[in-house]
Write a structure and sequence with these properties.
Elements (H helix, E strand, L loop, with lengths): L1 H28 L19 H14 L7 H10 L3 H8 L13 H12 L4 H8 L1
Length: 128
């Protein structure tokens, strides 16, 4: 019984020491804590497009030290799309395209054009 308690205590101390060194190594590396990925955007119904944009821009802002390169941002943005959303982005990233995306903001604009509700004001007025 005493041996088991000594083992548990030693194990707990080892875990605490390794956790502290991990926390210190994260602090010294300057990397922010990784935010979870946003849901996959498919057809703008679930998740809603505006919510998805907020999640994505928040991730890029909070994890700027992880996404320091615009090319990485573009790759991550594409990886969080499927279906209709991916189709909207598909033409320009091809190697033979003449009008390649040069920033992830351009990709957001393409998706905004495709998924924003151009009739939202009329629909809101009709509901009143």
């Amino acid at each position: 019984m005493v041996e088991r308690d000594e083992y548990k205590t030693a194990y707990a101390e080892t875990q605490l020491l390794s956790r502290d060194s991990t926390v210190e190594s994260i602090r010294s590396s300057g990397k922010s804590e990784k935010m979870p990925d946003s849901q996959l955007l498919t057809d703008s119904k679930e998740p809603k497009f505006k919510d998805w944009v907020i999640d994505m821009k928040g991730k890029f802002m909070v994890n700027a030290n992880r996404f320091g390169d615009d090319q990485i941002n573009r790759g991550h943005l594409v990886s969080r799309t499927r279906g209709l959303a991916r189709q909207q982005l598909r033409a320009r990233p091809r190697e033979d395209a003449t009008d390649l995306y040069t920033s992830f903001e351009q990709m957001f604009k393409t998706l905004t054009t495709a998924f924003q509700n151009h009739h939202r004001r009329m629909e809101a007025d009709a509901e009143l």
